[in-house]
Design goal:
Number of domains of chain A: 2
Radius of gyration of chain B: 17 Å
Distance between the termini of chain A: 26 Å
Oligomer: heterodimer
Bound molecules: adenosine-5'-diphosphate, magnesium ion
CATH class of chain B: Alpha Beta
Shape of chain A: elongated
CATH superfamily of chain B: P-loop containing nucleotide triphosphate hydrolases
Structural class of chain B: alpha/beta
Largest sheet of chain B: 6 strands, mixed
Order of helices and strands of chain A: HHEHEHHEHEHHHH
Strand order of the largest sheet of chain B: 6-7-8-3-9-10
Order of helices and strands of chain B: EEEHEEHEHHHEHEEE
Helix content of chain B: 25-40%
CATH architecture of chain B: 3-Layer(aba) Sandwich
Largest sheet of chain A: 4 strands, antiparallel
Chain lengths: 298, 229
């Protein structure tokens, strides 16, 4: 394609947009709207799964020891624990240390603890897992192994609910994927029909072009360019709106004691924003492809 | 037909039939047009002149028979090759077929844009042919603001602008007065002199005096006679 055909094609793009501005606006808005929905799902999903990952990284298994365990038995227990596969750092928390921690946590209700005759809290080992080892399927057998060691009263890992939650998140991801595909398909369908309308208003022009020797590529390229631009603009609008809403949300919800205190809410990564733009352009391209295919073949 | 010139055939039609539903438009047409011929296709309204031309640039396909244009078999041509076939032909449509949203100049220049000519050449050439049909001061008018005769001349200019190998003109002077018709024929003659094969479909026998050429008479879809004047 040389300079003349290229400039002629861009001239036609301009002409098309100026003769049917509302159809082009409608396509852009449709794409923007669907990308906004998809982007929202992506934003929620990435934040929640980041959060879960950070929680998972911090999972600790707490093994409570029998009362009055002599120091020698305790050391050998710790050695055995350390040999278990997946166990990382082990920290001993004595009965006194446990009580001190409790007092610190309840500093406004200290009177409740003052009445206690003796320390009811057990000593424990707090076991961290080796980095990158925190899969659920490996955690259960480890806990079982620890439970079977002598002098261990009980084993607990506080974040057991996390498992339920991450199952829910896996489901959420699947659901959003399906919804995303449906949205994209619907948008392609809507765009196809809008582009068909444009083609219909131009059918005389297109037929004449073909009769005077224009190739399909010459005839079709402006429509592809238009919808690629519309897809790109739709993506920009969606990312812009999403970012605006995100900033608004952040400024409103800054209370650190919320469940989200462990990490900040992050916006979509640059890659994800780029992917949204790419999806927009893909929708536009595919819409043109479908409508042109139907329109130009007799 | 006996060929004495040794010129090569540009168009050959073998036993061509064309039906629209049950309506027979062409019946067993055999025709050879040589390079640089000037041919009139004539006959009454409804005789099949337009149909014959439309078969040549594949606006319609034959129901039966075969057509060769420049040695290309029109019944076997690949879809992607059709534009290149059409670029060898300039067509003046009976109903003009101008693009209403394009100016006179843009309608004519489009032909050269599709083939990717230099911008400067396009401007020069498009203005030149429009001058030859007397429309140099209507360059930026839109077709619907023009009279029928002016539109017809735009159609002629568009057909001629690409210096086609073959010019197909369907009643090209139907809406024209004598002066305008003379202009159009001057243009045709000029193309003809430069080697273009010209085929004019007309029911107007007065046109035969304008050029020396062959005359093919159609009657109800059949070739009635072929004469040379
Ligand atoms: N698209 C069409 N559909 C049906 N019949 C047609 C069509 N085009 C032409 N015809 C018929 O074919 C015959 C030849 O028409 P045409 O080639 O236009 O004749 P001419 O150009 O010599 O006046 C006519 O009887 C006409 O009614
Ligand atoms: Mg006719």
């Amino acid at each position: 394609m040389n300079l003349t055909t290229r400039s002629s094609i861009f001239q036609r793009v301009r002409r098309n947009v100026s003769t049917t501005p509302y159809l082009h606006l409608a396509t852009t808005a449709t794409i923007a709207f669907s990308l906004l929905i998809i982007g929202t799902f992506a934003l929620v999903y990435t934040n929640i799964s980041d959060l879960i990952r950070s929680w998972q990284d911090n999972i600790r298994v707490v093994a409570y020891l029998s009362d009055g365990l002599p120091e020698g038995r305790r050391t050998s227990l710790q050695q055995r624990l350390a040999k278990l596969y997946g166990v990382g750092e082990i920290r001993y928390v004595s009965k006194d240390a446990a009580m001190d921690r409790l007092k610190r946590q309840m500093k406004h209700r200290l009177s409740l603890l003052e009445g206690l005759q003796e320390n009811p809290l057990p000593a424990s080992f707090e076991i961290r897992l080796v980095q990158g080892w925190q899969g659920w399927e490996r955690l259960d057998p480890l806990v079982d192994q620890i439970k079977q060691l002598p002098d261990i009263e009980d084993v607990e890992y506080g974040q057991a609910w996390l498992r339920r939650f991450s199952q829910f998140i896996a489901f959420f991801r699947l659901a959003s994927l399906i919804i995303g595909v449906l949205i994209v398909a619907t948008t392609v369908f809507v765009c196809t029909n809008t582009i068909k309308l444009t083609l219909y208003t131009k059918r005389q022009e297109l037929e004449i072009m073909s009769l005077v020797g224009a190739t399909d590529a010459f005839i079709q390229t402006p429509f592809y360019i238009e919808s690629l631009i519309e897809g790109f603009l739709g993506g920009l609008i969606a990312v812009g709106l999403l970012f605006g809403t995100y900033r608004l949300f952040i400024s409103r919800v800054q209370s650190p004691h919320l469940l989200l205190s462990s990490g900040e809410i992050a916006f979509l990564s640059l890659t994800a924003c780029g992917a949204l733009l790419a999806v927009g352009m893909l929708i536009g391209w595919f819409g043109s492809y479908l409508s042109l295919k139907r329109f130009l073949r007799p | 037909m006996i060929m004495t010139t040794g010129a090569e055939p540009v168009i050959r039609m073998f036993h061509v039939h064309k039906r629209y539903g049950s309506q027979m438009a062409l019946h067993d047409v055999n025709l050879t047009v040589l390079k640089n011929d000037f041919v009139f296709i004539t006959g009454q309204s409804g005789a099949g002149k337009t149909t014959l031309l439309r078969l040549l640039f594949l606006d319609e396909v034959v129901s039966q028979g075969q057509i060769l244009v420049n040695g290309i078999h029109l019944q076997r041509i690949r879809r992607a090759k059709i534009p290149f076939l059409r670029r060898n032909m300039g067509v003046v449509f009976q109903d003009f077929r101008l693009i209403h949203s394009y100016t006179v100049y843009e309608n004519v220049a489009l032909v050269l844009e599709t083939t990717g000519q230099q911008k400067r050449y396009i401007q020069k050439r498009a203005r030149q042919v429009l001058r030859m049909v007397g429309l140099e001061d209507r360059l930026h008018a839109y077709p619907q603001r023009l009279s029928g005769g002016e539109q017809q001349r735009v159609a002629v200019a568009r057909a001629a602008v690409g210096n086609p190998l073959i010019l197909l003109a369907d009643e090209p002077t139907g809406n024209l007065d004598t002066t305008a018709a003379d202009m159009v024929f001057d243009l045709f003659r000029q193309l003809h002199t430069r080697g273009t094969t010209v085929i004019v479909a007309t029911h107007d026998s007065r046109l035969f005096e304008k050029v020396q050429g062959r005359i093919v008479v159609l009657n109800q879809g059949c070739v009635e006679s072929k004469l040379t004047v």
